[in-house]
Amino acid sequence: GLVVQDPASTRYDLGPAALRIGLATLARVDAVRLARERIPALLQETGHTLAIAVWGNQGPTMVHWDEAPQAAPVTLRLGDVMPLLTSATGRCFAAFMPREGRDGARIQRMIDDELARLRRLPQTGFPLEDVPLDMPAVNATLDEVRRQGLGRVVHGMVPGVGGFCAPVFDAQGRLALGLVVLGSAATFETDWDGPPARALRACARRLSEDIGYRAPS
After folding, report:
1. Alpha helix segments (H runs only) across the chain
2. Collapsing DSSP states into helix, strand and coil, what is residue 202?
3. Furthest C-alpha separation in the chain
4. Cα Rg for the chain, rounded, in angstroms?
5. Is 181 exposed, middle or buried (0-12, 13-18, 19+ CB in 10 A)?
6. How far apart are CA 206 and CA 201, in angstroms?
7. pTM of the model as a whole
8. What is the average per-residue pLDDT within 91-109?
9. Local confidence band at 34 (pLDDT 50, 70, 90 cut-offs)
10. Top mean-pLDDT range of 52-61, 82-91, 102-111
């Protein structure tokens, strides 16, 4: 059952047993484990703190954290849930998670709640440079994330810190996790095509391919 022959063309192709083996292999792939294996090389390449986030019960949740030497102190902890609009991680998940069905409705409620909180904050001295305060601004922000293939925030939820989050997709094209790089805004290059952004995109693309994702041609 590993191969079958087309009776018309006499050509061979993968059979049902090969398909079952492939599906079993995909089911055993641990995306977070594979991502953690790539962190040391990415840490050496970027020189900045790295993290892994997955979608949890309350939203994008930090599940791995690896600080770079000389890293600016950051008060985030494992298990922390990232806001959707004021963190690179949240923007990445808000942009690439499905917007239909139960998850889509839940994400929209979370965005609405965050917008309401942001509008209540005093604007004087507010550290964020690009805070969306209404749905047209939110949509424009998330469209930019999709175009760039990264979530980005400068002087975000942690003042003085910049960061990116890149999506990693599984074999079904679903968002499996986010790879995060962040550092002090004084030394961290936040340009969309700067070294941290390029390194993170490349790593996320390779990891997606390793867990079975094939980008649309």
Report:
1. 16-28, 31-46, 88-96, 101-120, 135-148, 195-210
2. helix
3. 74
4. 20
5. buried
6. 9
7. 0.82
8. 89
9. very high
10. 82-91
